[in-house]
Amino acid sequence: xxxxxxxxxxxxxxxxxxxxxxxxxxxxxxQQCADEFGDAFxxxxxxxxxxxxxxxxxxVKSFFSLKPDQIDQSKLAIPIDVGDxxxxxxxxxxxxxxxxxxxxxxxxxxxxxxAQVMHEIVTEHIDAMQPGxxxxxxxxxxxxxxxxxxxxxxxxxxxxKRDQYRDLMLAxxxxxxxxxxxxxxxxxxxxxxxxxxxKAYLKKTRKGDFGHxxxxxxxxxxxxxxKAQLADMMRRDIREARENPDAQRNDxxxxxxxxxxxxxxxxxxxxxxxxxxxxxxxGHETSAATSAWYMLWLLKRPHVYKKMHDTVLQSLAEEGRxxxxxxxxxxxxxxxxxxxxxxxxxxxxxxxxxxxxxxIGPLTIPPNTNVLAAAYLxxxxxxxxxxxxxEFRPERWxxxxxPSPFEYYPFGGGRRACVGSNQAKQQLRIIxxxxxxxxxxxxxxxxxxxxxxxxxxxGQTEPQGGVPVTxxxxxxxxxxxxxxxxxxxx
Length: 490
What we know:
By secondary structure, this protein is an alpha+beta fold.
């Protein structure tokens, strides 16, 4: 190791205290560390190798340019068992090939085909709302995106099988991401905990035990039980897809079931299951957390919500109908989502696990270190975004030069950027376009500068206690269409 390789300075508090601050107020703690230590600092958490956080764009560029042989992502600090052979955890050529397999079901042509169904699902949820109804935004959006996942991931729009999948997926997500599981994972060490859960799952399934929904005594046993049940359903569907090809299907599960390695071999069933579960967890929790912060900004900036409403109506007047693809291309709506993800990204950073010494900007970081590009900090730098960096101003995205991939990266970057980012953005754009067109909300957080604390839900940062809202107005589905009345149901 180079004699000059060393860790940047950081707080001297006990590891458990650092972990507690990260769990209870991660935004505030990262900013406090940046204010004290500058562009790079080191945190130490129980069960984990040192974590070096960097936020300066030149450092972020070096971070995203790390070579495959410098990192080992099997050590990634994610305490949820989706399988040990999933794209996010594999390395080198295998990772590059895996992305080629996983990305095609998520490309723009297929997103275009799915957009109409996404809109139908959003419409069904809004149609079921009544004035006076109360919701928690991350859970409301989570319910919508779970229905979308049943279609995009599994090709199921309705019916008994879809309902069975939906109930099982939701139960598994909740059992795997609750506070107890997250705390245990961070005390043991996220990768060690994930591997322990996966071994328990494999032991169970190799005995032919595919779960019966029993909770058990140990807090993690229910998660393993539900995963075994869900995996068994998926395994049967993978076999069905392979035995009975259907050219009309374009859902992710079907496409990945037919994907092959370069030697022509089909992916193992367990590998397909891992990819499907990772997309489910990633899409559900990321969208729920992102929507929570987005709604908070809109509640506090009603003029922005009103402008979104007017912009959608203008699009309807021009198109003569609600075209979900056209809606997702409206610059102002995209600017609003980007501004929310800039100031309050649900993923505060993206991690690489070093196994070799690496240059990160001017720093030389030793091996056996977790390096993170701190999106939350980079997104708030005044030397990047100007003196109004802390202001919510969507117009900044419409005024010429856009940020580089090293200045704005809510979905990570480089060779390991999130493969589902396009679908995540698409469904959120459709959901919030329809909220703005058809629904008015009230909330204790409306028209105030009071902000909730932060909590960690499966690695995503959500507002502590959620975002409670009350529906005050629901407009009919035809509202704003040419020839329709603009009268709202209040």
